[in-house]
Porphobilinogen deaminase
Amino acid sequence: MSQSFRVGTRGSALATTQTGWAAEHLAQLSGLAAETVLVKTEGDVVTGSLANLGGTGVFAAALRQHLLDGGCDLAVHSLKDLPTVQPGGLVLAAIPPREDVRDALCGRDGMTLDELPEGAKIGTGSPRRAAQLRAYRQDLVIVDIRGNVPTRLGRVKGMGDTLDDGSVGRATQGDLDAVILAAAGMRRLGLEKHITQYLDPSIMLPAPGQGALALETRTAGTDHAELDQALARFDDLHTRLQVEAERALLNALEAGCAAPIGALARVQENKLVLDAVACNPDGSEVMRRSAAAPLADVAAAQALGRELANGMLADGAAVVAGLA
């Protein structure tokens, strides 16, 4: 039997960095060597708004097909990019400890959100971020942007030419006052020096699963007993319970990443606490709710997410967020 395993990844700098981190840990835990397999996905080559592309899953489909076809032994995803319904034949074998969950503002001249001038232009491709920004400051001009992390940073005045690896949306430079990015991705790429403010979840709740990686395998396993054991050891229970609650909420709201929904679970003493927000896309209305349950297993975490979602739906969340 081969003494190495193949890890499928997208080709962006962030994807390969995340995959390299996970593969290195799995190699140490399993005693096997890791090989990286690059897979180009629709989201990497199709231009236009992410929301209009279908949002959730646009980066994952080709990678998942490659895994199902046996082209790799496992795939590494940003969990927030995955649809909430797991496809047949594949399983999330490990969710390692989560990185920083927050959204990060990268502003010109070191500015924070409150310091940006009236009418400042902020770039984001996320309706969730856009809606919460508008709710916080109605005067901001939100610009829909695409591209990898360095490309987006290059849109901010004064950031200069940032490294670029051929991303969608890279034609324009220096036209914005700030961009919003996931803190986890910035930290994984070593670009946290460009962050001018970590946005508190009271201002901006992150996407369900933000900051977490998902290591996906075929349901039958990987053909490497050592790798299967390593994946089980790499799984972090608290992270898994948090993201299961968040994703169950998103699923019950029947929303994807193109919807202005934020959710964040945390372990507090012996409880799992889940905060959620549903926003009108224009920021004019915001519904925030919270619920808690005893810290238990995945089924209990999912039940917490569904319970909070059902309460929000009863209070009109679908109308608020434009899901109805």
Confidence is low (pLDDT under 50) at residues 44-56. The longest strand covers residues 271-279. Residues 13-30 form the longest helix (18 residues).
